[in-house]
Write a structure and sequence with these properties.
Layout: E1 2-3, H1 16-31, E2 44-49, H2 55-66, E3 70-74, H3 88-98, E4 101-106, H4 111-118, E5 122-128, H5 134-147, E6 155-159, H6 166-175, E7 182-186, H7 195-203, E8 207-211, H8 214-217, E9 223-226, H9 237-243, H10 251-254, E10 262-264, H11 285-306, E11 310-311, E12 340-342, E13 348-351, E14 357-359
Parallel strand pairs: 2-3, 2-4, 4-5, 6-7, 6-9, 7-8, 9-10
Antiparallel strand pairs: 1-11, 12-13, 13-14
Helix pairs in contact: 1-5, 1-11, 2-11, 3-4, 5-6, 5-11
The protein binds N-carbamoyl-L-aspartate.
Length: about 350
């Protein structure tokens, strides 16, 4: 399936060079923002946020305003026709006639892809359930480029809710495309990185190890990426409470870290980094959030200027086959064409919306 608009659903849909260009442009804008103040004069961006957000939504909005454009949208679907049962298809079809670019965040995996199938303008994925968050990854890559001066040869620790954290999924897919990066996944057995992400890391030629404690990993890291336990994605309060407070980065643990290790976090923080760590010059998370605005300026400009066609669905439908993931958009919006990628022997299918695997 093709769309005549250019979308960003997953960074892997683009060559690495495209991301590098965005990051370079983001850095240029950061160094000289006034030069870009009229790049999007007369353009309108719609933000459709079906899930809470502070940084992503506001940084997108300020990015557009700083480029000279204007914004519309909702951040509480209860105040829109969504509350009356409107589908993603109808909402995006309508809003995409009002705006030049649509930024969507949704609690269900694959929702941004679903929006891109019918939107009459570009769609940007601002987080789809526990699946992906490509613009946080652009933020993270710009942070690494500025603060570590490289995107290669790094040992990156990722700590916390690795199964539900969309930021770490997107970041692993991206960083494993650069040479010499190694990952150390720090989590409880229940919250381990999904197998499909580990397979992508291996296929890209990077390596990873999995450990249970921060203490055993911290000394070897160049970057420590902390994440929040994603309470809203747990099946029950009891399951969440069993994981809460497992990992807390404090001043004492930082004594074991390299002098130039940086701490990143997509934020919001709950209790996984104590406030005393904020004073440590290696704490990069507030700066990281600021860099996000500049890289989003670069993304909006690029998508509106390039105007490329997108291939929205590349897979195949299989008669009667549905995705197994109850939190996949194809199990919530029935009209969507099911679409799967197949492995060589065609017995393992991967849902093109949420990446869930199933054997047939
Ligand atoms: C993250 C998200 O929404 O996935 N926040 C963000 O976009 N900066 C991380 C989180 O919610 O834990």
């Amino acid at each position: 399936m093709y769309s005549e608009y250019q979308h960003l659903i997953d960074l892997s849909d683009y060559p690495v060079l495209w991301w590098k260009n965005l990051i370079e442009l983001g850095e240029k804008i950061y160094n000289n923002p006034s030069e870009y103040a009229h790049k999007c004069d007369g353009k309108i961006m719609a933000t459709l946020f079906y899930e809470p957000s502070t940084r992503t939504q506001m940084s997108f909005q300020t990015a557009m305003i700083r480029l000279g454009g204007q914004i519309i949208g909702f951040d509480n679907p209860a105040n829109s026709s969504v509350a009356k049962g409107e589908t993603i298809k109808d909402t995006t079809k309508i809003v995409s006639n009002y705006a030049d670019v649509l930024v969507i965040r949704h609690p269900i995996a694959g929702a941004a892809k679903a929006a891109s199938l019918t939107a009459d303008c570009s769609v940007i994925n601002a987080g789809d359930g526990g699946h992906l968050h490509p613009t946080q990854t652009l933020t993270d890559l710009l942070t690494l480029k500025i603060e570590k001066k490289t995107l290669s040869g790094l040992t990156i620790g990722m700590c916390g809710d690795l199964i539900n954290g969309r930021t770490v999924h997107s970041l692993c897919k991206a960083l494993s495309r650069f040479e010499g990066n190694k990952f150390v996944f720090i989590s409880t057995p229940e919250l381990r990185m999904p197998v499909y992400i580990k397979d992508i890391i291996k296929a890209n030629g990077s390596s990873f190890e999995e450990v249970n404690t921060l203490e055993e990993a911290i000394g070897g890291l160049d970057v420590l990426y902390m994440t929040r336990i994603q309470q809203e994605r747990f099946p029950s309060e009891e399951d969440y409470l069993a994981q809460k407070n497992t990992y807390v980065l404090d001043r004492k643990k930082m004594l074991g870290a390299k002098k130039d290790m940086i701490i990143m976090h997509p934020l919001p923080r709950v209790d996984e980094i104590t406030v005393e760590v904020d004073e440590d010059e290696r704490a990069m998370y507030f700066k990281q959030a600021k860099y996000g605005m500049y890289v989003r300026m670069a993304l909006i400009m690029t998508i509106l200027e390039e105007k490329k066609f997108s291939e929205t669905l590349k897979g195949k439908t299989y008669a009667g086959v549905r995705c197994n993931n109850p939190r996949c958009i194809t199990n919530h919006e029935e009209y969507l064409p099911k679409s799967f990628r197949s492995s060589g022997d065609q017995t393992l299918l991967e849902c093109e919306y949420c990446d869930e695997r199933k054997l047939i």
